[in-house]
Amino acid sequence: MSEKILLCGEGPTDYGKPGASSGQWEEGPVQPLIRNSVRKEFCFDYATKEDIRGLRLQRRRPKVGGKGKVAFKLCIIAKLRRIDSVILFSDADREQRSKNNERNAKRRFEKVYQEIRELPGGMRHFTVPVDLQTIRKATRKLARLLQRPGSSRFKYHARHLYDWLIRPAEADLASGNIDTLVVIPDGVLRTIPLSALHDGERFLIETYAVATVPGLTLTDSGPIAPESAEVLLSGLSEAREDFDPLPHVPDELRHVRETMGGTMLQDRDYTIGNLKSEFRAHPYSILHIATHGRFGDSPQDSFLLAYDGRLTMDGLERLVGLGRFRDRPSC
């Protein structure tokens, strides 16, 4: 599988633009230069100026401007899309072209370089002296013990996981006055509620508001205008495969539709094929699914039950991508 590179430039004259009719990205002169420089298999994903402007930084975040702010936002977008590499093409020679002055061009390059070097401390990476197998073992034990009502034995493993996952970042969270954590768990961590982690005195949910999303690329950081949002409601009330019926799903979908409106796919209409057709035809910004689900150690082992099969997290990502990134090519 080829690696993705998130690319952003000054405008259509360097890194291209979305095709008006084809839906494919019309490349500029930058892409061939990158392909000649990067000696490995990869494909491009793109961040537009609208993507950059739509990502709002916290007010408490240290000030950073110019290309440093753009680069910082690109790193956040790359994380949300599960992309490891980012290229920001800066038209830093524009001043040289306009004034034909190498000194001014050099100063502008140095300014851009300094801005990117001075990125704020908002993106941190912590390392703890514990191997993956130990984390998996503790997580599985915590998941089993949480299903035993009245028992507090789970706190032993909940505290260990807190020490490994949260405690290294406590000082930064406190200094930034952070009150909400958005958690994107991976692997076996998908099988437990992160809000149940324990610091020895209180649960994580007692200190922070905790929001959990199933995958990085399923999260859109931009705001949604309720009055213009297109909503797709889907659900399964009938018994399928080895799963029991969910008799309250019709009422749930009806109540949500009365509140938000939208298109509804229920039971026999709630198929993976119909979901694909809907996302190809409409730019849905809200997807509500009421069904059985299972979350395993990997996206392939995690799924939502549809009438005609299992919708994995990878499949859900591709499904949402049909609407969200229809102007950008996928790998």
Overview of this protein structure:
- The protein has helices spanning 12-15, 30-37, 49-54, 66-80, 94-99, 102-117, 132-145, 154-165, 170-175, 204-207, 249-260, 272-281, 313-324; strands spanning 3-8, 17-18, 25-26, 42-46, 85-88, 180-183, 209-212, 231-235, 263-266, 286-290, 293-294, 303-306, 309-312.
- The protein is of the alpha/beta class.
- The chain has 3 domains: 3-117, no CATH class; 132-212, no CATH class; 226-324, Rossmann fold (3-Layer(aba) Sandwich).
- The strands form 5 sheets. The protein has a 3-stranded parallel sheet, with helices on one face. The chain has a 3-stranded parallel sheet with strand order 9-8-10, sandwiched between helices.
- Helix 11 (249-260) links the parallel strand 8 (231-235) and strand 9 (263-266).
- The longest helix is centred in the first third of the chain and has 16 residues, at 102-117.
- The radius of gyration is 23 Å and the shape is globular.
- Mean pLDDT is 77; it is low at 92-100, 115-122 and 325-331.
